[in-house]
Amino acid sequence: MLLQLTGVNKRFGAVVAADDVTMHVEKGEALGIIGANGAGKSSLFNLCTGVLKADSGEIKFHGHDVTRASVRERCREGMGRSFQIPKPFESLTVFENLLTAAEFGCKDDRRSIGETARILEITGLADKANTEAGKLTLLNRKRLELARALATTPDLLLLDEIAGGLTEGECHELVELIKDLNAQGVTIVWIEHIVHALLSVVSRLIVLERGKIIAQGEPKAVMNDPEVKRSYLGIDDDMDEEVA
Amino acid sequence: MSDTHLDTSAAKKAFRSGTDGYSVAVGTRTFRIAMVVFALLIIGLIAAPAFVGRSQIRDMMQIMLLIGLAQCWNLLAGYGGLISVGQQAFVGLGAYFMFYCIIYVGMDPLVAVLAATVGGAIISVPIGLLTFRMQGAYFAVMTWVVAEVFRILASIYPGLGGGTGTGLPRSATSEMFGIEATATLFDMRSSTSREVVIYWAMLLAMLVVVIGAYYMLRSSRGLALMAIKDDEVAAESVGVDITRSKFIVYVFAGAGAALFGALYHLQKGTIDPNSAFSVIDWTAYVIFIVVIGGLGTIMGPIVGAIVFVLLETFLADFGPWYLMFLGALAIVMMLFAPQGLWGIFTERTGIELFPTRRRLLRDGKERP
Ligand SMILES: Nc1ncnc2c1ncn2[C@@H]1O[C@H](COP(=O)(O)OP(=O)(O)OP(=O)(O)O)[C@@H](O)[C@H]1O
Ligand SMILES: [Mg+2]
User: How many other C-beta atoms can be found within 10 angstroms of the C-beta atom of residue B181?
Assistant: First the structure.
């Protein structure tokens, strides 16, 4: 087991972002997470990576307790993540963004310029290598999120709504890339509202509602779960059509 | 469970397949030209005592002192995001430590300057541990409080004259390393050659600080600092050690301030708590210089220091009006040109004399 959360809780005042969350991620799997807006999906990533400290509960990564480990330590242990709202280093170029991640995020020093360049190529950023990240379009900022996370050579890749706003073609490319990464051994946890893209990659699905896991398991079965259907009803019409 | 992650991570395996022909370049053509110009300038500055008068030497010393101090503050605020208003603590401590080493340990003054620099670096660690507990404005206030504490301690310490201060014994500075050789070389009185030796030391100190700052920014630590400035959460999430990066900058700036504090007071020959720990001289003016020249660039503080000394030379006769003018100018700059004079120049011309951009090249060529 790569990641294990046990009884994790997190509240913001009256808002419950994580309600007694117990879940695990197997090494090598691709796991999807869905849930309505504000269900606590991004908060879950922030808890896993240490950006948020859990009120209670335990988080284990690679078999050891990281509940109190810093964000940096968890990154260097092999957690890579993208931010839902991209957070590029705007005054650095795209290449320098990756260089920073490779320099500080990898545990070993076997990184090379060639590897960084290769990440730029597969994420479609090769032409933007020397462009300041602050000047990128939203699409390229999202690509940079993925590329920068990859530059830290993660074992576990946490992707937060990385397909939003992509055209059909771009979305297809992204799906192929994530499948490739997964096939090469990178464990994936993907939060995504674009369910058809998500379902073409993941083999297991978790549904969150108000910080609580309300369903999990094989994607098709989970999507047909009456409680999951109810949870979405009227909240997101697009998604309902896609499920149907 | 934690079996394979130690040797090689999954994503690394995925990208190991070779992609060659890539390289990284930093410098630009203007940079190479600038280096030649700088080298000539430095040679000129070394030789200057041979053909300029004593008062010009003093003016240049003041400019170099301010460049050094401003560069340190620029690193702190412009790259470390640390708005300190307490750098006078290190200026004063460096100066007092040097006096102590000369008077009580019997060190050669130049060795004492080195000792003061090391002392500044060492004392900045506990001071940093204290001030780093505060955020934003509280950090600024804390740095000032610490400086005040040291000022008061200096004024009640009787060994170096307490509140009224003290002077260096003549014998200590007249036997200083290099004075005799310089006096013979230029055929000058030893009081003049003393100033020339300190001038060279000041020049060396300025070069060390400017070049040191530049190399730090070009190194991976520079990447970390830029990343932190842009987005701390993202920086941490890709493994950047934030506190460590800021601490490195803080220690560098503390050592630098102590170095220049020592050199300045060696030239002056006297010391007292109020001027050694002066918030106006060592922080307010320095902030003004960085704001005028341009925060977050290596050239900014250099341009700012030169402009400041020119303003001082031509406007000092106006007394208090001069200070009000400086304040007004700083406010106007912050409101309408926060990038400073050098920032405006770079925007207009695209000229960057100390480039840090790391460009990815393929087969030696840059992609569009
Ligand atoms: N730092 C914070 N401080 C206070 N409240 C927060 C904070 N972060 C998240 N929340 C709240 O916690 C709840 C869960 O937020 P979260 O961002 O995890 O939802 P989400 O499932 O990612 O939603 P979305 O689909 O919109 O991205 C929301 O009500 C949000 O307002
Ligand atoms: Mg979210």
Answer: 11
